[in-house]
Automatic annotation (TrEMBL):
Pfam families: Abhydrolase_6 (PF12697). Residues 119-380 form the AB hydrolase-1 domain. InterPro entries: AB_hydrolase_1, AB_hydrolase_fold, Serine_prot/Carboxylest_S33. The lineage of its organism: Eukaryota, Viridiplantae, Streptophyta, Embryophyta, Tracheophyta. GO terms for molecular function: hydrolase activity. Belongs to the peptidase S33 family. Keywords: Hydrolase. This is AB hydrolase-1 domain-containing protein. Transmembrane segments: none annotated. It comes from Phaseolus vulgaris (Kidney bean).
Length: 392
């Protein structure tokens, strides 16, 4: 399925807005909408691609001043029309994958209610492409839904969108909240893997007011509190980030990085995954080839430290009304979960049930931490309940 964008390739593997944190019972306030130019070429899909995809591609304006120009390509049966979309600033790079029955576009007809939307967030050193294949499968199975895949700050194509520090779980969550507000999207399902799981919890914590009801939140193989890593002999994100920061900014070949990582004790799988974050950096016509990292390692190091320090048990043990929280533990991801975590989630499950909320624990069999690649079929079956139950 082709996606049309001027954004650079991404890897395979989230200024606070004022919100009323005390009110967890109100609905999404209607967002403001700023202006920006849009071009909407029409592309025809093959018979095999029976859903439409829209992406906002981010590129700097010629004047290079306030914000960036955003162009939209609407694909499929939706006819593109020119309009104005967010010229004042850009927030995050993203893909919006729509089921074949979705005819909504915030640009084309703002009077229509938005379709049910699920937001998918990647883990540290990942990007939105991690969820591409999985989201397309969901779009085929649930054609009335749309799926927003986001590059968190300092990751993927969002790296070029400069963000003020601190780079934290909370600031990453606020970025996503501002994005859905500006896109006029009301998320019904939030899914976050690893670091992205805490971002989901922070979204609910910060924005119980802007988030619509009901909301089903999924935290995939991450706990609300203490981060435990390294039990499988190669899962050491902090060490990986630290080592990558010692490498040159310009890399001659991907193979040299793979060799260096393996010599440092990381597995070949991790090494091969990491180099997908390299993109060609040579100037056109140059005889020599080189690569540079697509992410901002300094910012990512700060984000990972925040991930280790952030404790969001409070939002689990006091679930906002209408929010259903789901935790998914990978069967082989033993070192990440302590008995204390499981007991605490079970207690929160009982308390939430008494107060009309929801907390639920799931186990994904035959999977390690990389749940969407280790057992995509099992993950699909578990997550599907959210798209069958949630109503527009």
């Amino acid at each position: 399925m082709p996606i049309f964008s001027h954004s650079s390739p991404c890897c395979t593997a989230a200024a606070m807005a004022a919100v009323n944190l005390s009110d967890r019972r109100t609905k999404f306030a209607s967002p403001s909408w700023s202006n920006c130019k849009v071009t909407s070429p029409i592309h025809r899909l093959s018979e095999n691609d029976k859903f439409s995809v829209s992406r906002l591609a981010l590129s700097h304006s010629r004047r290079g001043v306030k914000g960036q120009t955003i162009s939209m390509a609407l694909v499929g049966n939706t006819v593109g029309q020119k309009g104005e979309v967010a010229t004042s600033s850009s927030i995050l790079a993203y893909d919006l994958i729509q089921g074949e029955l979705v005819r909504w576009s915030s640009v084309m007809d703002r009077s229509l209610p938005d379709p049910p939307t699920a937001v998918f967030l990647h883990g540290i050193l990942g990007c939105r492409k991690n969820w591409g294949t999985f989201a397309r499968r969901l779009a085929k199975e649930f054609p009335t839904w749309q799926f927003l895949l986001v590059d968190l700050r300092c990751h993927g194509d969002s790296t070029s969108i400069k963000k003020r520090g601190p780079h934290t779980v909370a600031s990453a969550a606020n970025d996503v909240l501002k994005l859905v507000r500006d896109l006029r999207i009301t998320p019904r399902v939030l899914v976050g893997h690893s670091f992205g799981g805490k971002v989901v919890l922070s979204m609910v914590d910060q924005a119980a007011k802007p988030l619509a009801r009901p909301v089903r939140a999924w935290v995939l193989d991450a706990t609300p509190g203490k981060v435990r890593t390294g039990g499988d002999g190669e899962d050491h994100p902090a060490e990986l980030i630290s080592f990558l920061s010692t490498l040159p900014k310009e890399i001659s070949t991907k193979q040299e990085v793979v060799r260096a990582l393996i010599q440092q004790g990381f597995s070949n799988d991790v090494a091969q995954w990491v180099v997908t974050n390299l993109r060609p950096s040579s100037s056109p016509g140059s005889q020599s080839s080189s690569f540079s990292w697509v992410f901002d390692l300094r910012g990512i190091a700060e984000m990972y430290q925040s991930y280790e320090e952030t404790n969001l048990w409070k939002i689990v043990e006091d679930v906002p009304r209408g929010v259903h929280m789901n935790f998914l533990k990978a069967e082989r991801s033993l070192h990440r979960w302590a008995l204390e975590d499981l007991r605490r989630i079970h207690a929160a499950e009982e308390l939430a049930a008494e107060e009309g909320g929801g907390v639920e624990m799931h186990v994904l069999e035959d999977a390690g931490h990389w749940v969407h690649t280790d057992n995509p079929d099992g993950l699909f079956r578990i997550l599907s309940s959210s798209f069958q139950v949630a109503k527009t």
